[in-house]
Write a structure and sequence with these properties.
This protein has 348 residues and is α+β, with helices and mostly antiparallel strands. Helices cover 27% and strands 16% of the residues. The strands form four sheets. The chain has a five-stranded antiparallel β-sheet with strand order 1-2-3-5-4, with helices on one face. Strands 6-11 form a two-stranded antiparallel ribbon. The chain has a two-stranded antiparallel sheet with strand order 7-10. It comes from Paramoeba aestuarina.
């Protein structure tokens, strides 16, 4: 990978901050970039000197991938005050979640387009036998032209899949690949089999995608009413609970507000209005969304789609040119403009 001298990068606004890293906007040779800075010397102690850090593993993954729907990696750097940094393209619009859960009125065409963008990127990753393991609306970023790109490969790993580096769990050279059992990812996108500590496959990414599509459809967290991880384990993983397909608030920006008196509680909506009317979309298209989501987050991983099937499923529906509107004019903004506030605080 290319090592970029830190003197070439001017660090600017803080875009996001986590327990072990922060992301800042940077200017590198006249180009706006995002700089992910490791704030701890090591995320986890090494068992031995040959063990790779999470950042090193992330670089190993990023070096293998190049796709229109995956965040582009430029190189790494070392700053005097930071032990390690990843330099990627700057995504001016911030996270997907920032748009689907806030004030933006997202057209159905854009929801389809974003779902297909994510599925296309994931189809590419799985084709290279890479499992993301932390796919979420927080880890999908939007470019200035509203293209969705998958980001944050810190928890990703390669797996021995069909047509991959090995067969029956073996890598090339006969080394056996350790089965994946550790619960890695974030609620509510974490697949039930992963949460329960069972062996899991690349199909955990398909479950996570189903949750992202539910967010695109309804504008909310599907498990907002579940108060704790213990409740999640019981309700979602063991009892196979899945939420209804209606928005949390019938007066939300995704709903035809004039149809609902303000006194109506969201729990009363299903008995009064069909969900496609609540969501403001055609019945046939709603059924397509519903069937896609149900198939993706089925409790049986073998029942879930492959991403190649999902891309085919979404292709006819995403042929129309998308449009997006909000309370302010956003279409005139250029990526990296100093006045663009959308990316601030939304990268992590």
């Amino acid at each position: 990978p290319q090592q970029i001298p830190h003197q070439q990068i001017q660090l600017r606004d803080l875009l996001g901050k986590g327990a072990f890293a922060e992301v800042r906007k940077g200017l590198w040779c006249g180009t706006w970039v995002a700089v992910k800075l490791l704030t701890q010397k090591r995320l986890y102690p090494r068992k031995n000197q040959n063990e790779k850090t999470i950042f090193e593993k992330e670089i190993a993954i990023l070096l293998q991938v190049r796709h229109p729907n995956i965040l582009q990696f430029f190189g790494y750097s070392v700053f005097p005050e930071y032990p390690f940094a990843l330099v990627t393209e700057f995504m001016a619009r911030g996270t997907l979640q920032n748009y689907i859960r806030e004030e933006w009125v997202v057209s159905e065409e854009y929801r389809f387009a974003w779902a297909k963008d994510i599925a296309s990127g994931m189809e590419y990753l799985h084709g290279k036998n890479i499992i993301h393991r932390d796919l979420s609306s927080v880890n999908v970023l939007l470019s200035d032209d509203f293209t969705a790109k998958i980001a944050d490969f810190g928890l990703s790993r390669e797996y021995a899949g069909e047509g991959g580096r090995g067969e029956r769990g073996k890598r090339e050279g006969g080394e056996r690949e350790e089965p994946m059992t550790m619960a890695i990812g974030s609620l509510p996108w974490l697949a039930p089999e992963s949460f329960l500590g069972e062996k899991y496959t690349h199909k955990v990414d398909v479950y996570s995608f189903g949750v992202c599509v539910y967010e695109l459809l309804t504008g909310r967290d599907p498990y907002w009413e579940i108060p704790s991880m213990m409740n999640y384990a019981q309700k979602v993983a063991r009892e196979h609970y899945r939420p209804p397909f209606i928005p949390l608030d019938p007066l939300s920006t995704l709903s035809p507000a004039s149809s609902f008196p303000s006194s109506f509680a969201s729990s009363s909506v299903p008995s009064l209005f069909p969900p496609w009317e609540v969501l403001g979309i055609e019945k046939e298209k709603f059924k397509m969304w519903e069937n896609l989501i149900k198939k993706c987050w089925d409790s049986d991983p073998d029942v879930r789609y492959e991403f190649s099937e999902i891309v085919q499923h979404l292709t006819p529906a995403s042929s129309s040119p998308p449009s997006l509107s909000s309370s302010g004019d956003i279409r005139g903004r250029k990526e990296g403009e100093e006045g663009d506030e959308r990316a601030k605080g939304t990268y992590m």
